[in-house]
Design brief:
Elements (H helix, E strand, L loop, with lengths): L1 H15 L5 H6 L3 H16 L4 E11 L3 E7 L6 E8 L5 E7 L6 E5 L3 E8 L4 E8 L6 E10 L1
Antiparallel strand pairs: 1-8, 2-7, 3-6, 3-8, 4-5, 4-7
Length: about 150
């Protein structure tokens, strides 16, 4: 009696755990629907012409934030770097455009947002260095995007 119940349960579990045939599942989806989904996905990607250079990044602590990106001329000539200072102290940013340039310096006031605009007519490497001059805790968000 117990043996029949165990065998019955085993058969039920084996049916439940049986892999679904991938081709069988795909054949149930109409071709029109799947192509519409692909076209909609492509349109959503192409609808935003901006190229993200730095994804939204949060940085906290006493260490400086360092980041870098390359502006590719095919993505446009303009870029914005947006820094939000969430701390109660000023922070300072040095931008190095290509390896041979002098750094561009700017101050980011406490509890404020600063946008730095860049113009590059060719492929350009940019390094970002944000720090506190006297070692305060930093709390910032940074993002950058390139556009035409």
């Amino acid at each position: 009696m117990w043996l029949k119940k165990i065998m019955g349960a085993g058969i039920v579990f084996s049916v439940l755990l049986m892999p679904v045939n991938k081709l069988d599942a795909e054949s149930r989806i109409p071709a029109e629907t799947s192509s519409k989904v692909v076209n909609a996905a492509e349109e959503s990607v192409n609808s935003n012409p901006n190229a993200l250079l730095i994804l939204e990044t949060n940085h906290q602590g006493r260490t400086a934030y360092t980041g870098s990106f390359t502006m590719v001329a095919d993505n446009g000539t303009l870029a914005d770097i947006i820094i939000e200072n969430h701390s109660n102290h000023s922070m300072y940013m040095n931008l190095y455009v290509d390896d041979y340039s002098e750094p561009m310096e700017t101050t980011i006031s406490k509890n404020s947002e600063k946008t730095v605009n860049l113009l590059a007519l060719q492929d350009t490497d940019v390094k970002v260095y944000i720090y506190s001059r006297i070692g305060h805790d930093m709390d910032l968000s940074i993002r950058a995007e390139q556009y035409r």
